Amino acid sequence: MKKAALTLCFIVNLICVHASHLMGGQITSRNIGGKTYQITLTLYRDTRGVAINSTAPINYYDSNDTLIVSNQVPINSSTNIGNGIEEYFYIDTVTFPTIGKYKITWHDCCRNAAIVNFEPPDYQNFLLENELLVDPTNSSPKFLNRPVFFAPINQPYVYNPLPYDIDGDSLFWSLDTPLTIPISDGFGGFEPPPIYTTPSSDPGMPFTMNPNTGQISFKPNRTGYFVTSVLVREFRNGVEIGIIRRDYQIIITNATVTPPIIIISSNASGPSSSALILSTDSTFRLTATAEVSARNFLEIEAIGEPLLLSNPPLVQVSNDTSLASLSMEWGNNDMFRREKPYTMVLRVTQTQNQLRFITDYTIQLFLNSGVLSVSELQKDNFRFEVYPNPSDGNFNISYHSESPEDGEMNIYSLKGEKIFNQKINLKKGEHLIKFAEKNISSGYYNLQLISNKKLLSKSLIIK
Prior knowledge:
Blueprint: H1 2-11, H2 13-19, E1 22-33, E2 36-46, E3 55-62, E4 67-82, E5 85-95, E6 100-109, E7 118-119, E8 125-134, E9 142-143, E10 150-152, E11 157-159, E12 163-164, E13 170-176, E14 195-196, E15 208-209, E16 216-218, E17 224-236, E18 239-253, E19 261-266, E20 269-272, E21 275-277, E22 284-291, E23 297-304, E24 314-321, E25 323-330, E26 342-352, E27 355-366, E28 376-378, E29 382-387, E30 394-401, E31 405-413, E32 418-426, E33 429-436, E34 443-451, E35 454-462
Parallel strand pairs: 10-18, 21-27
Antiparallel strand pairs: 1-2, 1-18, 2-5, 3-4, 3-6, 4-5, 6-8, 7-14, 8-18, 9-12, 11-16, 13-17, 15-16, 17-18, 19-22, 20-21, 22-25, 23-24, 23-26, 24-25, 26-27, 28-29, 29-30, 30-33, 31-32, 31-34, 34-35
C-alpha cells in the first residue's frame, strides 16, 4: 500500500501539492441518538497553497478490521482564523449497525515538504484517527482550543489544546508521533514515519506536555516547520474506550516578539495563581492583565469547561494596544463540586505586523472546598481508594482487582513533574499499599494508577 501511495504522489502531482498545504486536523464524534453519530473532520489549511478538496473520504471500520463504509463528505463550513490559515469542517452523519468499538479514519497524500522533523515528509500520508465506543451514552472527547501554529524563535511556546469529554469520562493525554501511510486499512494499521524527532528546543525548556493540565510548552531554538501529534485516550470505569488525535504544524519564525507578562489575582486560595481552591460559600472573583512593552494589539479570552456549564462564570474583557484585561465572577457553583479540578485557559493574542502570536495560561480550579473525603470509585471490576486525604505524606492506597495485571503508580506535581513512580503487580483480590514519603512538599498532586488499558486518577493533598 505504501508503494501505491508513493506512486500516486508522483503521477498526480496536484494531490501532493494540495496536501502539503494542510497544517493540521482531527476527527471527533458526537452521539445524536441511539447508534447515530455526527462525525466531524476538521482540517486546517495554509491559504498560500492551492484550494482544499471539496470532499473528504471518511472511512469506517469495525473491531474485526472490516471496512463498513467509506463516505465522500462535502465541506460543511469554513472560517479564516488568522495568520493565513483557514479552518474547514466536513460533517458526516452515520448510523452504526451495532453497539461496540469502531475506528474512523481519514488520510491524504502528502505532507508539507518543508517539515524538518519528519523524513521524508513529502512522501508520507497525513493521517487522522478516532477510535469510538458506539453507545447511546457516549460521544468522543474533543479539543476546546484551536492549535497555535506560529511562534517566535528563542521565546517560550505555551499552548493548551484543552481536551474535554462531555460525558465526564476520564482522559489521559500525551504527545505522540504523527501517523503516516496505512499498512492495512484497519485497527493498528498505521505506522510512525521512518524518522521523527520532537520539535527542536532549548535543553532548558524541552518539548513536553503537562500530564495534569494538558499544557504543551517548549522554547524553540531553530526556525522551520515542525509537526507534532496530541493523543487523547478516553477511559470509562477504568477501561479504555476511545482515542482522538490532533495533528498540527508549528512554524517557528525569526520574529522578534516578546510574550506578554500575565498577572493574575483572585480571592481564592491555592499554591499558585495556576491552581486555585474555590470556596462554594462565596462568589469566586478573578482578574487578569496582560502587558507588553511593544505597541502591539493585545486580546485576552477565557476558554474551558467552566464556560460550558449551565451556570458559567461571568467574563468581561478589555482589549487594547499593549494591554488587555479580563475579569471573572462565578457564584452559586456548589452544584458543580467534584474531586477533579476544572481546567481553564486564559489565551492572550498579540498582533505584530499582521501576524498573531498566542500564549496560553492554564488555570486549574479546585471546587471541593480544599478537603477531599475518603471517596471510593466503584468500577465494574476495579476499586480504588486513597486515605487519609489530605495527609502529611503518609497515606494508604487500596484497590481490588478481579484479574491479575501489571501496572504502575505515578504521582505528578501540578507543574506536570513526575515526583514518584513505582511498578506494581495487580494480583486478583484486595491489595493495600502503605505510602510514606516525608520528602514531598505540601501542595496539590495528581495520583495515577495505570495498567493495561486502565487508568484511575485521584487528586492528592499533602499538608
